[in-house]
Design a protein that fits this description.
Keywords: Endoplasmic reticulum, Glycosidase, Hydrolase
Distance between the termini: 16 Å
Number of helices: 1
EC number: 3.2.1.106
Shape: globular
Structural class: mainly beta
Main location: endoplasmic reticulum
GO molecular function, one term: Glc3Man9GlcNAc2 oligosaccharide glucosidase activity
Family: Belongs to the glycosyl hydrolase 63 family.
Largest sheet: 8 strands, antiparallel
């Protein structure tokens, strides 16, 4: 799944009609192999595209591309995208960390999927430009149920992370702490979350093999 946060705004996860997301919906979807979705939220445009390649014993591989850009002029606010994978009562997830801070991949096993690897590629600029500067945080937590994911992530945010692009001013932002949970609620499953903080425009890709 995907959550997002324009710093200075609210954490978004599910699109409720009354929460200020001005528009969202599928532009194209064949019901099975590919889809293109667009979400507009206070000047931010998020375009998500997926394509699936059937094969193997468990439904095949897929890749997912998220393009984030701002409409209008002026400096882009810092944007955090939270890519996550969660289990609910069965399956195991193992984080694959890069430099101790970037969740590069999740190695998992589930009854329906068998063994799988979910890989988070570093962000690039729009239009195939090279690497894009970003800050990374990750969260590993037990979850009492999928309906509590938003609350768990919101509770884990701390305004102690620093976005420090080369040659430009440093800015503080809300980043997830590396471990967490909801006090007093027994975990049923696992959550691994990859937070990427950057200035739009940017393109991010995720692959599941």
């Amino acid at each position: 799944g995907l959550m997002w946060l324009q710093h200075g705004g609210n954490l978004r996860h599910t699109s409720e009609q009354n929460d200020g997301v001005s528009r969202y919906g599928w532009l194209m979807h064949d019901g099975e192999n590919f889809g293109v979705q667009e979400i507009r939220d206070e000047g931010l445009v998020l375009r998500t595209e997926f394509v699936k390649q059937p094969g193997g014993d468990h439904g095949g591989d897929w890749s997912w591309r998220v393009t984030a850009k701002m409409e209008g002029k002026g400096p882009a606010p810092l944007l955090s995208l939270f890519f996550y994978v969660a289990t609910d009562g069965q399956g195991t997830l193992r984080p694959v960390l890069e430099n101790g801070t970037r969740l590069a991949a999740v190695a998992g096993t589930a009854e329906e999927l068998g063994d799988f690897t979910l890989t988070f590629l570093p962000p690039t600029g729009e239009g195939g430009e090279g690497p894009k500067y970003a800050s990374y945080n990750f969260l590993a937590a037990g979850v009492p149920g999928l309906h509590r994911l938003t609350d768990l992530v919101r509770q884990s945010l701390r305004e102690s992370s620093v976005f420090s692009p080369p040659g430009r001013p440093r800015r503080r932002f809300f980043g997830v702490s590396s471990t967490g949970g909801l006090p007093g609620e027994a975990p049923r499953g696992q959550l691994l979350l990859h937070q990427v903080t950057l200035e739009p425009p940017a393109v991010l890709e995720v692959t599941l093999e």
